[in-house]
Amino acid sequence: MTHTEQLGVSTAPTDGSSAGRWTGSPQPSSAEEWLARAREVSDILIVDAVDRDRANLTPHAEVRLLKDSGLVTLLGPVAHGGGGQSWEIAYQVIRVVARGDGSIGQLLGYHYLWAWAARLVATDEQIAAVEELYTRNNFLFGGAVNPRDSDLSVREDGEELVFSGHKSFSTGGEVADLTVLEGVLEGTETHIFAIVPTSQPGIVFGGDWDNLGQRLTESGSVEIRQVRVPWSDAAGFVGKVFQPLVYNTLNVPAIQLVFTNFYLGITQGALETAAEYTRSSTRAWPYGGDNKERATDEWYLLEGYGQLQSKLWADEAIADRAGAEISRVLHEPREDLTPRRRGEIAVLIAAAKLRAIEDGLETTSKIYEFTGARASANAVGLDIFWRNLRTHSLHDPAAYKKREVGQYVLLNEVPEPSWYT
C-alpha cells in the first residue's frame, strides 16, 4: 500500500443539527446555489454560536455540518464529487459562514488553503492523488505550519523523511482528517511540505487553545514526534530536488485574503445581530429634547448604522475585487505567474485586510452605542464578534501591511514573498 493510500483514514460521524438535512438533495451546481448552501449553514451556526463559544468544546458537530453541506469539497474536482468552484466563490463562502460563526469560517478558510497546498507546490501526480483523496472522502485539512515557531526538523532515513518538533498553533487540530507539515531538512535550508493523516501516534495535540476569541478553531499546540513520510510524498520534489515556481508563493496572499473574508463575515454578523437587537429591544432616549417613540426613529441610530453599513459594503467591494484577481491567477497555468503580478495582488489584499480589520473593530465596538446598556449583558452575547475579530487580527502586525501599500504607492515597489507577505 502506498503512503497516499494510507492517508485514506476515515473518521466516525458526529451528531449535529445537520443530520439528514441535505439527504436526498442534489449537490449545488452553480455559484449562486453554493452561496445559498453557505447561508443555510450560517443560519444554523448563528443560533447557538454564543453558547458553543462558552462551552469551548472540540467542534466535531460543526465540522460534520460543513461536511454534510458539501462545503468542504467546494474546490474539489467535479470528477471526484467536488463542487469544482473557483476561489472567487470560496472566499465569499468563507465570509457567509463566518457571519454565523467566526471560528467555523476560519476552519473552513484554512481548510481551503491547505487543500489547495498541493496545487501550490506539488507535482502534477501528487496534485491528482491529493485532490482525489480529500474530495472522495470529504476530508478536512489542518496545518502545523506556524512560521513564528522554529521549523520542524526533517531528517532523511533511506527513502523516508522523519518530521519532529513543536508548533504553538495548529488550526484544525483534532477535527482535521489530514494535516499539512512543513519543516527543514537537516543540514540544509530546504523546506519540505507533506500531507499526513492526523490520527496517528506521532501527532499529539496539546488541547491548550483557550483564547479570547475564535475559540472553536482547534488552534492549540501540537507535538510532531517522528512522523514518517515517503520521499515520494515530499510536495513538489522530483528526484529529491524541489521545482520552484513564482506560483509556489501564492500561499501567503491566498490565506491573507481568507483572513480578510472571515473578518468581514464576523463584522456582518455583528451588524445584523445588533440591528435586530435595536429593532426589538433598544429604547428611544427620552431626555434629548427631540424625543422619539421608537429607537428606530432616533436620528443618531439611523446615522450610525448607515455609517457602519456603508463601510462594510465598501470593504466587501475591495475584498471581492481582490478575490477575483487572485482567483484568476490561482486557476491559470502555474507557469504563467510573474513576480510583479504576484506582488500587485499581494498589495491589493493587504489593503483589503487593513480595511476589514479597522472597520471591523470599529463596528464590533460601536454597536454597543447603538444597542444600549442592556445589550452589554452576557446573555445577549454581542461581545463574541469583537473577541473573535480582535483575536485573529493580531495574527501579524497590520502596520506592515500599511507599509507594503505605502511602498507600492510612493515607490512603485511590490513586496518580496515571505511567510507573511
UniProtKB/TrEMBL annotation:
Residue spans of biased composition, Polar residues class: 1-17
One Gene Ontology molecular-function label: flavin adenine dinucleotide binding
Single biological process term from Gene Ontology: L-leucine catabolic process
Membrane spanning residue stretches: none
Residue ranges constituting the Acyl-CoA dehydrogenase C-terminal domain according to the UniProt record: 258-395
Region (Disordered): 1-30
Keywords for this protein: Flavoprotein, Monooxygenase, Oxidoreductase
Protein name: Monooxygenase
Organism for this UniProt entry: Cryobacterium arcticum
